[in-house]
Design goal:
D-Maltodextrin-Binding Protein, domain 2; seven-stranded mixed sheet; elongated; alpha/beta; 3 domains; five-stranded mixed sheet
Length: 301
């Protein structure tokens, strides 16, 4: 059984778009050529890969299996190209990382900074996602390394501890909650909340927690940084839920009180997740080891 790399890439495009025409456009070939190539691929495998539906294409079980392996094969080819290019251009590598909000705002930047200082020819693509989305992306080979927190299913992935943090409530000096050592999330729902911008992992994480207890979360304003949240909280606009590391940093210069959250989910035990080392570029494996060692040397709490 022989597989053409172009056909595998075309198949991935079509599967992701659930539409033959859109997949063909991404592959920069005509609709007719794409149709022929997909039919030949199915003949080569001896099985159909899609259910043809009125609204588009839907992968069947054979298609699901091929999609998983095709992504891994294409990623390995991309890594091969990157590794070989270093002989011609001196480029050492490129690593894709997905991380949750808490890690991006606390320990991860320092960990990456020390790594990049020792590897000047390495580039890192760092993006923020929800932990559940990160695990899916790692399994589908759309990222090399993930930093997750909370109760997520990491079965089939390698997992290492990373630096932990916790979510806390920040309130202005003089706010009634500021007299408490800790409070429950439900008690914060009486106040206006200040949040990160829509689409951020933390802004997506909190509202479902409120809905789960039959309440709603009122975002009075959404901004682009924890610093902005703290400035607005200090001005009396509302309260915020942010990582303790950020709250402690900004409380040094602003009139804020930090109140611990008693809810179990507030403790963010971060984990490094990745596929088997054999499927990753060498530089990504080095970075995983660096991050795992970093957590032993730098504990925030």
């Amino acid at each position: 059984m022989h597989f053409d790399l172009f056909d595998l890439r075309l198949f991935v495009f079509v599967a992701e778009e659930t539409n033959l025409r859109k997949g063909a456009e991404r592959a920069c070939i005509s609709l007719g050529a794409a149709s022929t190539r997909i039919k030949l691929l199915e003949e080569n495998i001896g099985s159909r890969l899609f259910h043809r539906k009125p609204y588009g294409l839907e992968l069947n079980s054979a298609g699901d299996a091929l999609l998983h392996h095709a992504r891994l094969v294409l990623q390995q080819v991309d890594h091969l190209k990157c590794d070989l290019r270093e002989y011609a251009s001196g480029t050492r590598g490129h690593v894709r990382i997905l991380a949750n909000t808490t890690s991006i705002s606390s320990a991860l930047p320092a960990a990456l900074a020390s790594f990049l200082a020792r590897h000047p020819d390495v580039n890192i693509d760092l993006r923020e996602r929800l932990s559940q989305e990160i695990v899916i992306a790692i399994n589908e080979a759309r990222a090399d390394i993930g930093i997750v927190a909370g109760n997520v299913d990491t079965q089939g992935l390698e997992v290492h501890d990373f630096v932990g943090d916790e979510l806390v409530v920040v309130v202005r000096d003089g706010h009634p909650l500021g007299t408490k050592a800790h409070t429950g999330f439900v008690e914060t729902l009486e106040d206006h909340h200040i949040s990160l911008a829509e689409g951020s992992a933390l802004a997506s994480f909190l509202p479902p927690l409120a809905r789960a207890i039959g309440r709603s979360l009122d975002f009075r304003i959404q901004v682009n940084s924890f610093e902005s949240i703290c400035m607005l909280v200090a001005a009396g606009v509302g309260i915020g839920i942010i990582p303790r590391s950020s709250a402690t940093r900004h409380a040094r210069t602003l009139k804020l009180k930090i109140v611990a959250l008693s809810d179990p989910w507030a403790r963010r035990e971060s984990k490094i997740v990745n596929r088997a080392h054999a499927t990753l570029p060498r530089i990504a494996v080095e970075l995983i080891r660096h991050l795992a060692n970093f957590q032993h040397e730098h504990r925030l709490l």
